[in-house]
């Protein structure tokens, strides 16, 4: 320590500072220098942790919830996947909500709308529907369905089996902006005004209606069916070697602008060939995964989790991750990457250890 610094240091030390903090505290002020390093960390220091929800463990509770409350009474019968380090917050990551929604045969989850955007990723079952702005889509395992911001939506199950899907919403992000609005439709179901497959025909074939103009950032495609996603991944696997970090990884796209189908949430699907072991990877978008096919394990920082079909897990921001596939595996994932990219914040690191 130089002589000059020593003379600048207050002789009364910590007591004088604490007393000073108390006096400025009365004016709702605080000293920056006590928290500067935390506020502007050299690298991301997330306050949430890797976590894993095995479907074998979760499913009995989901089904039990089905006998505790109806979809109608619950409005949305969902078990929230809460980050263990953020209990009570309904957050899976600080910006993303995730939950598993159950809808039993014959049930209706009543119509409402809100400024929060939702994605549905179908985990189990066939044949239930979601209706958005007058159009219904029948859902199958592995389908990715969007519910854009401020659109009326209700869900129903006319099939003979329970249906479970992953709900991904930007609830924490919207809460941070204090931009949440919501209202009920006033009837359980909105009227169906379009035939099934209406948006698929117009927007999901590499074509757009000639005079159509996008009025919002959200994709005009309603349902991205797994059959087509799987076909693309299979073809990629035939055509060449996988990416060292990602395997064969695709991002879902809004065909009208090249961006993410939902402005606030990026969605991805990747195939890991049997025996594939990925190179270490990290990025600033904390990511929620849903295992569509296969089994394997992922090491996230110091935590290793073993996963299989229908399991869910979360990888925090900037945590180094490696995946290993015991059998050919397919992983769906979502994150806040499009928001970070828009804000020039997103970073990745494909480096080694
Ligand atoms: O389907 O509208 O998991 O509003 C949480 C909030 C689902 C929905 C959730 C919601 C919904």
Automatic annotation (TrEMBL):
The gene is gtdA. This is Gentisate 1,2-dioxygenase. The keyword Oxidoreductase applies. Its EC number is 1.13.11.4. GO terms for molecular function: gentisate 1,2-dioxygenase activity. Keywords: Dioxygenase, Oxidoreductase. It comes from Vineibacter terrae. It is an enzyme of class 1 (oxidoreductase). The keyword NAD does not apply. Residues 100-167 form the Cupin type-2 domain.
């Amino acid at each position: 320590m130089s002589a000059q610094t020593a003379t600048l240091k207050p002789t009364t030390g910590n007591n004088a500072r604490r007393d000073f903090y108390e006096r400025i505290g009365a004016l709702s002020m605080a000293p920056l220098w006590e928290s500067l390093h935390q506020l502007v960390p050299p690298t991301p220091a997330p306050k949430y942790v890797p976590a894993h929800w095995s479907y074998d463990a979760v499913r009995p509770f989901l089904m039990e919830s089905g006998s505790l409350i109806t979809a109608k009474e619950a409005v949305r019968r969902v078990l929230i996947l809460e980050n263990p380090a953020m209990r009570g917050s309904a957050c899976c990551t600080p910006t993303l909500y995730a939950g598993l929604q159950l809808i039993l045969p014959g049930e209706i989850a009543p119509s409402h709308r809100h400024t929060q955007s939702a994605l549905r990723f179908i985990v189990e079952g066939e044949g239930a529907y979601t209706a958005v702005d007058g159009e219904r889509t029948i859902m199958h395992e592995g389908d990715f369905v969007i519910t854009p911001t401020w659109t009326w939506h209700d869900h129903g199950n006319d099939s003979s089996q329970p249906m479970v899907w992953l709900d991904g919403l930007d609830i924490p992000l919207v809460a941070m902006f204090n931009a949440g609005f919501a209202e009920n439709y006033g009837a359980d179901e909105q009227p169906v005004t379009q035939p099934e497959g209406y948006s698929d025909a117009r927007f999901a074939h590499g074509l757009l209606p000639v005079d159509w103009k996008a009025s919002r950032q959200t994709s005009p495609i309603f349902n991205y069916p797994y059959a087509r996603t799987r076909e693309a991944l299979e073809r990629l696997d035939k055509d060449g070697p996988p990416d060292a970090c990602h395997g064969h990884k695709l991002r879902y796209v809004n065909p009208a602008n090249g961006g993410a189908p939902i402005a606030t949430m990026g969605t991805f699907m990747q195939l890991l060939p049997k025996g594939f072991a990925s190179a270490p990877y990290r990025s600033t978008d904390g990511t929620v995964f849903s295992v569509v096919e296969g089994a394997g394990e992922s090491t996230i920082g110091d935590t290793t989790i073993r996963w299989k079909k229908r399991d869910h897990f979360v990888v925090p921001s900037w945590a180094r991750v490696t995946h290993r596939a015991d059998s050919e595996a397919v992983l769906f994932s979502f994150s806040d990457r499009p928001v970070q990219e828009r804000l020039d914040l997103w970073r990745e690191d494909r480096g080694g250890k």
